[in-house]
Amino acid sequence: MTANKLSKRWQLxxxxxxxxxxxxxxxxxxxxxxxxxxxxxxxxxxxxxxHIKLNDKTKFLQVGCGPADVIxxxxxxxxxxxxxxxxxxxxxxxxxxxxxxxxxxVGENLPYKDNYFDIIIFSNVLDHTxxxxxxxxxxxxxxxxxxxxxxxxxxxxxxxxxxxxxxxFFKKTLTGKIFNPCHxxxxxxxxxxxxxxSKFEIVFEKIAEDIEKEIKNLKELREFRKNQKxxxxxxxxxxxxxxxxxxxxxxxxx
Length: 254
Description:
By secondary structure, the chain is an alpha/beta fold. The protein has one domain (3-156, 186-221, 242-252): Rossmann fold, CATH 3.40.50. It has helices at 8-22, 26-48, 86-92, 132-142, 158-175, 189-197, 218-225, 230-237; strands at 59-63, 78-83, 102-104, 117-123, 143-155, 200-207, 244-252. It has a 7-stranded mixed sheet with strand order 3-2-1-4-5-7-6. The protein is globular. The mean pLDDT is 95.
């Protein structure tokens, strides 16, 4: 499956995602990685070590890695990464993409052997995909029977989604532009967890933790949202906090 065979909604998200990264530079990515991704990587590797042995033979894959992410900060093992914007990233940013074997592709069609990877990182990607079920099925296919998946995604409260639908309708009517263009999907928690649980056994999970932003719980997230732009700040006053981070470590179902 190639990008041009995916839905028009995904194509729109793909264009907007590329536009977002056009504003970044190699220097800004390196600075963010040093301040945030490296810390996140250190925390995650420690958590992974409770579920799987880590060594120089460990095979890592990050699906939807963007121009830089956790995979770029891992110093052990065999690393692979895949992203729809890989060619764009390689041409724009001067990073060591050979180290992570970055290739262009989509999660709906992973070009890897069955049962190949020990650890797969899938962070803040599911709501960017065209077919979430297909992507999770592909991740399940290429993950070793005793491997682990690190999953991270936003979910939204029902009240926030109703508000977003209304806002999106008026925005499109008045401006012709759609709301939240980079994300073809917005999940409720029950739907998100059902998607993950259909393919994997969840062995560790946290709600509202965001390692990159150093947010530990829902209370801290509410305070963080109150300092953002007005369309986020006002709902947060009424406890509608927008995207809530859900993270979990999973194993294949036996």
